[in-house]
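Researcher: Good morning. I'm working through a list of sequences from a screen, and I'd like to move beyond sequence-only analysis. For each chain I'm collecting a predicted structure so we can compare shapes side by side. This is the next one on the list. No need for commentary yet; just the structure.
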Amino acid sequence: MDANAYLDRIGAPRTGPANAARLRELHHAHLTTVPFENLDIHLGNRVSLTAEDLFDKIVRRARGGFCYELNGLFALLLEELGWTVTRLAARVHGGEHLGPPYDHLVLLVTGSDGTGPWLADVGFGDHAVHPLDFTSRAVQDDPAGRFQLVDTPEGDVDVLRDGKPQYRLETRARDLDDFTATCWYQQTNPRSHFTRKTVCTILTGAGRVTVSDRTLIVTAGGGRTETTLDTDEELFAAYRDHFGVQLLPGTTFQTP
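Model: Good morning. Structure tokens for this chain:
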């Protein structure tokens, strides 16, 4: 782990204490520089969760990824910088049903000064801008909405946004390797929403920019615009200009 290269990638200072304020800074910096995207699935590239492959993709090649990749590498950075990180499994709420076990990876982070733990998640796409206080069950105001952690009778924790459940956390510590099987399912199974369409999205200072299949969606100042990207040139230019993702001419997407 070249922590300095990673910090340069997200535009964050190279030095600072492993405390709540810096975690908040790094969390926000990550969300505004590293996109949530599933393009490799549709490019025919298998997602690897090894530390070297994650670093190469996200830092060296300036790409993004989905939860296992983004939170997986962010955890390694935080540990390198002095935080204690526990990896937790979550199941995403989808209407009346929960997703499969290990559906999502989130991080429980404690500072070197003993503050926390904080719930950090840079891999859910559109979610909290700042880490959430895991010890609190009160409503927590965030630029992305009002979040609340709610204990379930089974001992898990539901994460709510504006009153709507987002995902259910198990509190047992996991290893990144535990997510390998579900990561494979997410990138290969026709029932996975990651195989159904391409998505690339990033937080901006004014709101959010998303490319969903061939639709460019820009939200800013409470407004929303949608633009259809009719040609590959327009599509690839959107990936480059909004997310820093460079795709070579002639690149084609395929159904997993």
